[in-house]
Amino acid sequence: MPVGLDGVGKLVLIPFHAKTSTPIPAFEVDVTNRKSHLGTFSIVFPINGRMDDVTVSPRANELAWLLYVQGRTAAGSDDSVEVWLSAVNGKDVRRIGSVPVKRPPSHYEVGEDFPHELRWSPDGGHLAFLYRNELRVLSVK
């Protein structure tokens, strides 16, 4: 379960969810004021895909996602893994990049043919992941 903690005690939890065809829940918890539950939100994607990774931003206000999608590359017939952003509250869902893949990645598969190790920069301005033995960096602003 991906977890993010901001600097003032707000914790964000995302249960791992396999398909984007149903809303994905996000939970906020205040760990400093003993308020166990601040809110529950749903993230809805405009595509049908499979969640392969999610990570919480350093300020715990945004989520970055790797989604496996069939037939969405520029050629229209190949599969891809797309990088998406959303606010924790489920708003502002947007695609920021993609890479083509030749076959569907199995869950937890780590290898050079599939994007993996999605991480935020400390300032929250960039995302990085490994793909085909290269470090790929995307701006999120």
Which stretches are poorly predicted, pLDDT < 50 over at least 5 residues?
none
Helix percent reads under 10%
Strand pairing plus helix content: what structural class? mainly beta
What oligomeric state best describes the polypeptide chains here?
single chain
Task: Tell me the domain tally.
Answer: 1
* String of helices and strands: EEEEEEEEEEE
Strand order of the largest sheet: 1-2-3-4
Shape annotation: globular
Q: Distance N terminus to C terminus?
A: 26 Å
Task: Count the beta strands.
Answer: 11
Mean pLDDT: 78
Number of helices: 0
| Rg from alpha-carbon coordinates | 15 Å
Major beta sheet summary: 4 strands, antiparallel
Q: What percent of residues are in strands?
A: over 45%
